[in-house]
Amino acid sequence: MDSHSLPPGFIFSQSSLQDYNDCPRRFQLRYIDKLQWPAVETEPVLENERRQHEGQLFHRMVQQHLIGLPTEKLTPMANPAELSRWWENYLTTRFCLDGYALHAELTLVAPVGIYRLVAKYDLIAVKQSERALIYDWKTTRKRPRDEWMAARFQTRVYRAMLVQAGDALNGGKPIPPEQVEMIYWYADHPNEPARFPYNDTQYKRDWETLTGLITEIGNHQHFPLTEDEKKCAFCPYRSYCNRGGKAGTMDDLAETEPTNSEINFEQIAEIEY
């Protein structure tokens, strides 16, 4: 096998597909060469690390709340002030999920040729044969434009995967695309969620795009650098590519996500298609 080839069974995710779309070379360095991150992603470093840590803790608290842990047991964990604000916003938001079966921190997996595609969800709420809502909790400081989020691979992968591989959540029956909606809930902007309904035309387009892109990546031997050097400011591999040593600032991070958050692929088989 060539050193730049993917092994059969390689697991794709929204993160790896987004990396490839942003910069094929980043995909190679991270997922094929498995290089460690040699540069910080954003400045100031400590502020970025603190916010990522608090974001992870917030996700864990919400997951524990959804599986039934009492609010009074979780609330003392909500400190410092920023995490406390997110938690209070979450508790006071009416998500209107009565009658829904809630599946928190659920992973779906589907085969794509000789590879697999995986999606790990913050929350899937299903009212059988009626609605299937995908919730994703975001702790970004700035609220991204809906148009930007609609084009992200997370939005496309998560909705398509629920249709493709979500039968077990719907009594063994496929979930029609028209019943699916993805909702990004922003902890700093609790009254401004981004909602993305779905339909059959979008699903067929997305699945064709995803399967075609995965096939394309699998056939590639060369992974070129992106021509958009603005993306390099937030890439931890930029020093490998001589694309600058200085990280972008958090104030410029309005429409990007941390690039080092990835699924633990040894714990993905909760539900397989």
Which CATH class is shown? Answer: Alpha Beta
What does the main sheet amount to? 7 strands, mixed
Radius of gyration: 19 Å
Shape: globular
Number of helices: 8
CATH fold description: Lambda Exonuclease, Chain A
Key structural traits:
single chain, 273 residues, Lambda Exonuclease, Chain A, 7-stranded mixed sheet, two-stranded parallel ribbon, 21% strand
Strand and helix layout:
Blueprint: E1 11-12, H1 14-22, H2 24-32, E2 42-43, H3 45-66, H4 71-74, H5 81-92, E3 101-112, E4 115-127, E5 131-138, H6 146-151, H7 153-165, E6 180-186, E7 189-197, H8 200-219, E8 248-249, E9 271-272
Parallel strand pairs: 1-4, 2-8, 3-9, 5-6
Antiparallel strand pairs: 3-4, 4-5, 6-7
Helix pairs in contact: 1-2, 1-7, 3-5, 7-8
Would you give an account of this structure?
The chain has 273 residues and is of the alpha/beta class. It has one domain (11-272): Lambda Exonuclease, Chain A (Alpha-Beta Complex). It has eight helices and nine strands. Helix 1 packs across helix 2 and helix 7 crosses helix 8 (200-219). The longest helix has 22 residues, at 45-66. The chain is globular and about 50 Å long. Residues 258-273 have low confidence and may be disordered.
